[in-house]
Amino acid sequence: MSGSLLSTAIWLIVFTAVPPCGAPESSVARRGNLRPVDRAGYRFERTPERIVSLNPDLTENVIALGAGDRLVGVSDFCPLPSAGTAVRLGGLQNPGLERILSLRPDLVLATREGNSPETVARLRTLGVEVCVFEEARDFTAYFSFLRDLGALLGREEAAAGRIGEMEAAIERVRSGPLPPEPVSVFVQIGLQPLITASRGTLIGEMVEIASGQNIAASLPARYPVFSREQVLIDDPEVIIVAAMGSEAAASAAFWERFSELRAVKKGRVHILDPDTVCRLGPRLVEGLERIAGFLAGGRGE
Question: What domains sit in the chain, N to C, each tagged with a CATH number?
Fold first, then answer.
């Protein structure tokens, strides 16, 4: 994976938690459009109708809550709403400010990790309402974010419905056919360099829910570079590659070179759509179900 694509992938994994609005309450009150709704977040006195999203995960969740028709601008990496009328605004770190202003948004959504603080500060200086979200490290934080986003967009019932569906799916996995003993797992989210996810990430939590033992769990970095030699030493029972297309093919070929690995011997190197584990949204439960299938001994298909 190239450096730019790898950075994008990591941003897609780690973007959000509560509280949603980055501005202090005094600043929010001074601008006048937002008011506190609870200890976690803020909402508009009026429902925002012209929204710019500067992060793919935020965009996906706006669409999932049924507010995609309000998106007037998105980043180059964002999915387009079904109407397809949103304007592309550039990269995560360098969106076109003049183009954003020309869209006359009443709300811009950004993330602290994925977007430039200079961009956020400049937009606020120009009088644009910007809501900045923190990173989420587990499903609990993601659900808190979804509730706050629902409140912000006036889509509380849609958010509650999505959360209920996902909680039920997670419970089905927990009560389903899981391995009697934890299965050692290596999750690959980048090949060159070899990147994985440790504890304190949604991917790490998915592995734990599915009765997996992440061989990178103890590492201090959340998305560390992991050596090939250490994978050979730890000899995981399952290797999960979050990649598609040419990168998935390259990763499969890479691991096949190490026939001594248990995962390779037993045909337990699995390919997983990265959007189901690396992009926050309702499809996370699909990723969890696939991981559970891999660890239970099937192919999660």
Answer: 3-166 (3.40.50.1980), 178-296 (3.40.50.1980)
